[in-house]
Structure formats: C-alpha cells, structure tokens
C-alpha cells in the first residue's frame, strides 16, 4: 500500500429500493468507508449482502438514496463487472479499445501502444480485428480487464473478475493487481473465493447492506471475537466464521493444526506461509 492519501470517502451511504407493498429493500444501509491510494481491498460477504451495489456505487452508476460519496472528478475510475457481455460495446477487440481510449488520448499511435501493452499484460494473444463474439466468457473477461487497465485508472473496481477464468489466468490477475497497486492504483476486488482475499491490504465484509468488518486479513480469518454472546455460548468465532463464509484451504489447515496445539501464534494466509510456519514450529 502506498502512502495514506484518502482517495474515496463514503459517509453513511444508503441505497434503498422499493419492494413489495410498502417495504424497503436496503441494499446498502449506512456504510462509511475511507479508501486510500494504492490500497488493495477485498470485499466479501454472502449472496445479497450488498457487494455489487457497493461496487456500482463506487464506480458511480448506482445513485445514492442518502449519505455522501466523495471522490474527485479528476480521478479515472474503471470497473469490470461480473457479466463480461454486459460491458462489451465493440464488435472487435480493436473497436473495444478504440471506444475506451479515444476519449482519453487523441494520438492513434498512443492508443495502439496502450492496447498492445494491456493485451500483453493480461495474456490475450489475438489480432485486433478478432470478433469479440468469438471469444469465450473467460477471454471476454480478460478483454474487459485489459480495456480497464489500458485507461491507467486511479481506481480499479473488479466485481468477481475471475469467476470464468482458469487457475493460470486467476494467478495472472493477482500478479497484475499486485503490480498496479504498487504503482499507486487503488484496487477494490469483490470475491466469493476467499483464497483471493489473502494478498490484499484490507478486507471489508458486508452483511445485509452493512459493513461488519473492516481490517486486516489475518484478523478476519484468525482473531476470535470476545463478545458477550461468544462467552455465553462458549463459541469463539472469527469474523469469517461468524459470517458463515468458507475460509481459504490454508487457513482451514492452520486452524486444525492450532487445535492440536501447533504454532499457536501463527496466522498464515497462503500455502507458502503455512509451510514456513510449520517448519518453524517443528524446529522450535
Ligand atoms: N436494482 C435493484 N432493485 C431492487 N433490489 C436490488 C437491486 N439491486 C440489488 N438489489 C437487492 O439488494 C441486495 C444486495 O444486492 P447485491 O447484488 O449488491 O448483493 P451481492 O452481495 O453483490 O450479491 P451476490 O454475491 O449474489 O452478487 C439484494 O437483496 C438484492 O436483491
């Protein structure tokens, strides 16, 4: 994470929809957040908890019912949504980049350079005249990511970007995100796969339209909550367990080892960290 410059502030943000009868459906209900330059944030939560609404609101296409969204007009914000087809405008790869880049730069040479660079970064090797309709769902998603990257955004919002990708392409997206956050881009990554939330700086967890956790990944997976209910019911759950979300395989394995008394202090998130912690514990 670079610096600490706040780049987006949400204050008591609400998105409410009219529902059956006189009911109100609260997709977001009083969310306050500050996001910083160069941060990688994972947004997690059960289905219907408000993740995509939060993404849409950050991108700017979902209007507020109340509260304040503070983001400078000078910043370039780009989003990649869950459904790749919903985002494609051009008939060919060339056209898709042309629509995205012409408002940003006049020079055709510059546009070509940005296009080549972005396609290379995501690993899409097709001629520019290739019809978008001939690409698979995963390839269209990579194209959407490439188009978003080509705009060199200050803020990139990814709504389940890897849902249609194979493991190799998923790893590539993680590496790209690591690189661009180091350069100062703020990345907000919505995911159901908590493995993808182990490299980020901060996890924000949503439940019924509210932000119920905002902090380090280690605490999200390992720190048990010491509240009255936990003490009364003699169950101490991490925020992840309390939300009923499936922790990464590495975390599950580490929790089992901890139950057996191994590496009590360790909080590994990735397999290589777990291997190191086990080796350290065995040699201690
Ligand atoms: N345009 C809309 N009109 C009415 N209700 C909506 C609208 N958009 C979202 N909702 C409702 O708001 C709540 C939050 O939806 P949202 O899509 O943000 O959740 P989510 O966490 O992204 O879910 P998922 O993981 O299934 O994508 C849900 O109850 C949803 O039905």
Q: What does this protein structure show overall?
A:
- It comes from Paenibacillus xylanexedens.
- It is a peripheral membrane protein.
- InterPro entries: AAA+_ATPase, ABC_transporter-like_ATP-bd, ABC_transporter-like_CS, ABC_transpr_CbiO/EcfA_su, ECF_ABC_transporter_ATP-bd, P-loop_NTPase.
- One of its GO terms (molecular function) is ATP binding.
- The longest helix is centred in the middle third of the chain and has 16 residues, at about 165-180.
- With about 280 residues, the protein is of the alpha/beta class.
- It contains ten helices and nine strands.
- α2 (about 95-100) packs parallel to α4 and α3 (about 110-120) packs across α4 (about 135-150).
- It has a domain at about 225-284.
- The two termini are about 35 Å apart.
- β6 (about 155-160), α5 and β7 (about 185-190) form a beta-alpha-beta unit.
- Adenosine-5'-triphosphate binds near residues 25, 27, 47, 51 and 52.
Structural class: alpha/beta
Average pLDDT, all residues: 89
Distance between the termini: 33 Å
Beta-strand percent range: 15-25%
Q: Helical content, roughly?
A: 25-40%
List ligands, each type once: adenosine-5'-triphosphate
Walk across the major sheet and give the strand order: 5-6-7-3-8-9
Shape: globular
Stretches where pLDDT falls below 50 for ≥5 residues?
none
In total, the number of strands is 9
Major sheet attributes: 6 strands, mixed
User: What is the C-alpha radius of gyration, as a whole number of Å?
Assistant: 21 Å
Number of helices: 10
H-E order: EEEHEEHHHEHEEEHHHHH
């Amino acid at each position: 994470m670079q610096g600490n410059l706040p780049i987006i502030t949400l204050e008591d943000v609400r998105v409410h929809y009219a529902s059956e009868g006189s009911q109100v459906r609260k997709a977001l209900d009083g969310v306050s957040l500050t996001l910083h330059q160069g941060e990688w944030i994972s947004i997690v939560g059960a289905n219907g908890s408000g993740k995509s609404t939060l993404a849409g609101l950050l991108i700017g296409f979902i209007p507020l019912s109340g509260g304040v969204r503070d983001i400078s007009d000078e910043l370039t914000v780009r989003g990649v949504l869950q459904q790749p087809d919903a985002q494609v405008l051009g008939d060919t790869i060339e056209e898709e980049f042309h629509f995205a880049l012409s408002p940003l730069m006049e020079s055709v040479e510059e546009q070509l350079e940005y296009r080549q660079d972005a396609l290379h970064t995501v690993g899409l090797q097709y001629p520019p005249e290739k019809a978008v309709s001939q690409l698979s769902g995963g390839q269209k998603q990579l194209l959407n990511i490439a188009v978003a990257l080509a705009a060199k955004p200050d803020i990139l919002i990814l709504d389940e970007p890897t849902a249609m990708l194979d493991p190799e392409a998923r790893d590539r997206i993680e590496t790209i995100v690591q690189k661009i956050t180091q350069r100062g881009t703020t990345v907000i990554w919505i995911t159901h796969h908590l493995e993808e939330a182990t490299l980020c700086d901060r996890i924000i967890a949503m439940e019924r339209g509210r932000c119920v956790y905002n902090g380090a990944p280690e605490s999200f997976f390992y720190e048990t909550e010491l509240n009255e209910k936990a003490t009364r019911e003699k169950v101490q759950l991490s925020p992840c367990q309390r939300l009923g979300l499936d922790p990464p395989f590495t975390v599950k394995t580490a929790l089992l080892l901890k139950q057996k008394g191994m590496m009590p202090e360790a909080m590994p998130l990735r397999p290589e960290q777990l291997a190191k912690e086990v080796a350290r514990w065995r040699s201690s």
